[in-house]
Structures are given as C-alpha cells and as structure tokens.
Specification:
The chain has 13 helices and 14 strands. The chain has helices at residues 30-34, 51-54, 94-99, 108-127, 130-138, 165-174, 190-196, 203-209, 229-233, 252-260, 300-318, 335-356, 361-366; strands spanning 8-11, 38-41, 48-49, 59-62, 66-67, 81-84, 103-105, 157-161, 180-184, 199-200, 212-215, 240-243, 266-269, 289-291. The structure holds nicotinamide-adenine-dinucleotide.
Length: 369
C-alpha cells in the first residue's frame, strides 16, 4: 500500500532567472521538502496563470502572474490555495477565486520589517542627500560638497500616510531618533495609534506639520492621487516626501513640479505612477531625489520572510487547516472548502501513519530494512 501525495504544489516560474536559479535565493521551499510535500516549478513563465498551468495542483505559490477567471476555466478541481509571495494582490481577481472556493493568502509578516527598513533607508538617504553626493564623487565634483548640507533626523516630526502593518514597524525603528510621529489613517483606531505612540491627524495637518511625509497606505480609489498639488503645497519647504507604497497615491507630475520649483526639499521613491518610469521622466535627472526600482525592500530577509509565510500557508492547507493570512475570508467556512481541507487532513494523517510506520506493517516492509 502506498500513500497518495499529501498535496501537489506548483511554484510560479517567475522566481527563476534564465539559468534556472531562484532570483530570490532561499524562499524556504526546503520546508516543503522537509514535510514530504512534492512541489515543482510550473513549466512556463506566464503573466497570467491559465487553467492548463494549474490543472492537477492543490496549491500554487506565486509572485508575479495574474490569477483570473481563466485560471479556473473548465477545471473540476481547481487549486484550493493561491499563496502569494508578497502583500499586494492587485493582479488577483479575488471575486473569481472566491467563486471557485479558492483561498488567496498574502505574506504581511514577511514584508513588514523589509518595507519598514526600506522606508527608513529612503528617509536617511534623502535627508543626507545621497543621490547628489554619490554623483559628486563619481563625476569628479568633490569641491561642490558644501552645496549639499543635509538635515538630521533626530528630534524631527515624521508624518505617515497610512498606519498599517509596515508603518507600525517603522514607528518602532524610528524610536532611537526621538522623533514625534503623526499619522493620517481613517481606518486606524485611536487605541492602535496610542499603543504606537502616534498622534492621529487629518491628511492636510500631516502634510503641513511634518518634516518628512512617508506614504505607506494601501492604493484604493480613495487614495489615488491623495497627495496632489494642493497637498504638496501645504508642505514645509524644508520637508521631504517619500513613497514606498504605490506610485499612483502621489500625483507624480505635481511632485516633479514641487521638486523643481524648490517648493519641497527632496523626495525618495521606491514606486512610480508608471513602472518602470519613462526614460524622459524628469525624476531621473533631479539631484534631490533618491530612486529605487520598486525593490528597495528586496533583501534575503524578505526572501525568507515572504517565502516562509507563503510556505506556511501551504503547510497549513496540507494539514487541513485554514492558513493565517487569507484575504478572501468569504471562502472560509464554506462546505466545499471544508470538504477539501478535510480530505487533505485525512491524507496527511494516512501519510503520517505510513511515515512513522505506526500500525502499518506493509509500509515498513515497503520501506526496506
Ligand atoms: N515597495 C514595496 O516593495 C512594497 C512592499 C509591500 C507593500 N507595499 C505597499 O505598502 C502598502 C502598505 O503595506 P502594509 O503591509 O502596511 O498594508 P496594511 O494594509 O497593513 O496598511 C495599509 C493602511 O492604509 C490605510 N489606509 C486606507 N485608506 C487610507 C486613506 N485614505 N488614508 C490613509 N491611510 C489609509 C489602512 O487603514 C491601513 O492601515 C501596501 O498596500 C502595498 O501597496 C509596498
């Protein structure tokens, strides 16, 4: 007697470079091996997962490809888990996944610290004029260094737009600098803000009072161009604006104008309205901006954190449990999901008995001496 596999897992191919190496390094797939769970990279790199890509799989661990209605087309038994490596799910049609009883998970525990440290990096790099000073050295303009006096962080007032998971971690990282933190987040409770030692205020107040405004909120119709020309005009001329969330939250044309005119001091951007930015984008030529290709948070810490979290979601469903960070909660508790999780749990139990040999002499015989 042999046990069926506990669960069949596909990993999206965009993790691999041209040489077949995982560009993220160690994303903890070894924990699937250790649990005896079979996994493989999907045969093709695709911008959209089609039904043929995921047929026969119970779970898909993925980074970039879109999940749409076509992912489920014609499948009797589509995957019951789409575990996204990362926290954004703009490319996932959640309604389609919910219609097909498929769970979608994200990895906020993995992104939290790396995004917070990316924000801190941009903040310090911007205040210390890293772009301009890097250029001075490379271009043999050493003597011009006295034109780029920086600003210290200690004792300043930091304004956060959004006080969620990543912003909450940044607040802790800022503590040694004795800063005051104010934040605008209509969905954050006073209790959460008080626990973090943050004063809640409306967006205009944050823009007007902060020495550095850091955009860390989710992109929605409500936050699209939340930071527009009028709000940029409220900022102190010595203040800096940073965005580590999503490009369209800031009106980029208005930001360029504010930077060019000296209306604000500097900007630090990990994200853009169009990614990558067009070669003619004026931001690329300004000395008072620090830029990063939506990857400042990409570190081995993020690989292990996002990977470990997504792998844990797979391990959870393999054991018949609902994973922790499900975004389409409507699926949880549905009979169809309960049935499939129950079947996986039963398979896992059979496997455990076989693996340990307990009460199953045939398995021991099969396993050799
Ligand atoms: N640069 C990167 O590599 C990277 C990585 C991870 C996440 N992100 C982005 O950062 C964002 C924040 O991540 P998170 O993990 O902290 O998410 P989160 O969901 O924990 O926090 C988002 C916060 O935005 C708040 N918000 C909603 N509407 C708002 C509004 N009108 N004004 C102000 N705040 C508002 C929410 O209440 C929430 O507290 C994500 O949505 C994602 O777009 C970027």
């Amino acid at each position: 007697m042999t046990a069926g596999p506990r669960i069949t897992v596909g990993v999206s191919r965009d993790f691999l470079d041209d040489h077949g190496r995982n560009v993220w390094g160690d994303i903890r797939l070894g924990e699937l091996d250790a649990a005896g769970i079979a996994w493989h990279y999907l045969p093709r790199d695709t911008g959209e997962l089609l039904a043929a890509d995921v047929a026969g799989l119970d779970a898909v661990l993925f980074a970039a490809p879109a999940v749409t209605e076509r992912t489920f087309a014609g499948l009797d038994r589509p995957p019951l888990l789409f575990a996204r490596f990362g926290v954004g799910y703009d490319a996932v049609d959640l309604d389609a996944c919910t219609r097909h009883d498929a769970l979608v998970t994200i990895t906020p525990d993995g992104a939290r610290r790396p995004v917070a440290t990316a924000a801190l990096t941009l903040l310090l790099a911007t205040l210390h004029n890293v772009t301009a000073k890097d250029r001075l050295v490379r271009e043999g303009r050493w003597a011009e260094k006295d034109r780029w006096m920086g600003r210290g962080l200690t004792g300043r007032r930091i304004g956060l737009i959004g006080l969620g998971n990543t912003a909450g971690d940044l607040v802790g990282l800022l503590r040694p600098f004795d800063v005051e933190v104010i934040a605008s987040d209509p969905y954050c409770t006073q209790e959460t803000a008080r626990r973090l030692g943050v004063r809640l205020a409306d967006v205009d107040t944050v823009m007007a009072e902060a020495d550095a405004v850091i955009v860390m909120c989710v992109l929605t119709e409500e936050t699209r161009h939340l930071i527009d020309a009028r709000r940029l005009a409220l900022m102190r001329p010595t203040a800096v604006l940073l965005n580590v969330a999503r490009g369209p939250i800031v009106d980029e044309a208005a930001l360029i104008e504010a930077l060019r005119s000296g209306r604000i001091r500097a900007a630090g951007l990990d994200v853009f309205e169009t990614e990558p930015p067009e070669p003619g984008n004026p931001l690329l030529h300004l000395d008072n901006v620090v830029l990063s290709p939506h990857a400042l948070a990409w570190t081995d810490e993020m690989s292990a954190g996002n990977g470990g979290s997504a792998v844990q979601a797979v391990l959870d469903v393999a054991a018949g449990r609902v994973p922790r960070f499900v975004v389409n909660r409507d699926v949880v508790g549905r009979p169809a999901l309960a049935d499939r999780l129950g079947a996986l749990a039963a398979r896992a139990e059979i496997r455990t008995v076989l693996d340990t040999g307990a009460g199953e002499p045939a398995a021991r015989a099969e396993g050799g001496s």
